[in-house]
Write a structure and sequence with these properties.
Blueprint (H helix, E strand, L loop, with lengths): L4 E5 L6 H15 L6 E5 L5 H8 L4 E5 L16 H6 L4 E4 L2 H5 L5 H14 L2 E6 L3 H5 L3 H12 L5 H6 L1 E4 L13 H18 L2 H6 L2 E4 L4 H8 L6 E4 L6 H12 L1
Parallel strand pairs: 1-2, 1-8, 2-3, 3-4, 4-5, 5-6, 6-7, 7-8
Helix pairs in contact: 1-2, 5-7, 7-9, 11-12
Bound molecules: 1,3-dihydroxyacetonephosphate (13P).
1,3-dihydroxyacetonephosphate binds next to strand 8.
Length: 252
């Protein structure tokens, strides 16, 4: 049985005091309940402050990106070791905003995924089609290509530690959520791809989150689909009540 996993991607939002207040609010509301895995992924400059705010709670810390090299002359970059050092458990890799705005390729994402796993960080690897690709009937091939490219070379054990986030680009920040059936179709395809590439044990173990306009009002139905194992939440992760509402949807 896969444990549901709700992660908040705060993107480039909040300031230090709002980040600490949000994290502290979540930590206290969540209490000791651990039937759902919960993580927050603040901007990297606030990781340390947020770690302190969630210390001792069930909320885990994640980063939004990293570089694949361990150290050296890579101005502006952050390594997996540095993220572990400030208390991260997870790192989001290959988010569509990084793919489309910052030009990240599957090959670059693959290097990061491999480096994260080697260091002991759990990657949340994002895939998803644009509206044009969906309307052109290419959703399945695009998502398959992204999974094969960005997760190339992972062992079965590494794959089981990796979370996949299916985030259709047209649903991100638009309020236009995929229907539960549209999301479930892609999640089921992803799971059968994992079965083909690895085996049924790996396919059954990997958690596949949905992301794109997840809100308290649509979370329960999405998370009730057999192959949707959690959510990667943008806008609605910036308010304690909204994020708690989504976590509640994962429990129902
Ligand atoms: P929204 O929830 O704001 O649509 O963002 C989704 C997302 O990109 C999470 O990574």
């Amino acid at each position: 049985m896969r444990k549901k996993f709700i992660a908040g991607n705060w993107k480039m939002n909040l300031n230090r005091s709002d980040a600490v207040a949000l994290a502290g609010g979540l930590a206290s509301q969540l209490g000791t309940s651990d039937d759902v895995d919960v993580a927050v992924c603040p901007p990297s400059v606030y990781l340390d402050a947020v770690r302190e705010a969630i210390s001792g709670s069930q909320v885990a810390l994640g980063a939004q990106n990293m570089y694949h090299e361990a150290s050296g002359a890579f101005t502006g970059e952050i390594s997996a070791g540095m993220l572990l050092d400030v208390g991260c458990k997870y790192v989001i890799l290959g988010h569509s905003e990084r793919r489309h705005i910052l030009g990240e390729t599957d090959a670059a994402i693959n290097l990061k995924v491999v480096a994260a796993l080697a260091a002991g960080l759990l990657p949340i690897v994002c895939v998803g089609e644009t509206l044009e690709e969906r309307e052109g009937g290419r959703t399945q091939s695009v998502v398959k290509g992204q999974v094969e490219g960005s997760l190339a070379g992972l062992t079965a054990a590494q794959m089981q530690q990796t979370v996949i986030a299916y985030e259709p680009v047209w649903a991100i920040g638009t309020g236009k959520v995929a229907t539960p059936a549209q999301a479930e179709e892609v999640h089921a395809d992803l799971r059968s791809l994992l079965e083909t590439v690895y085996n049924s044990e790996v396919a059954a173990a990997v958690r596949i989150q949905y992301g794109g306009s997840v809100k308290p009002g649509n979370a329960a139905e999405l998370l009730g689909q057999p192959n949707i194992d959690g959510a990667l939440v943008g806008g609605a992760s910036l308010q304690v009540d909204d994020f708690m509402g989504i976590i509640a949807g994962a429990k129902s």
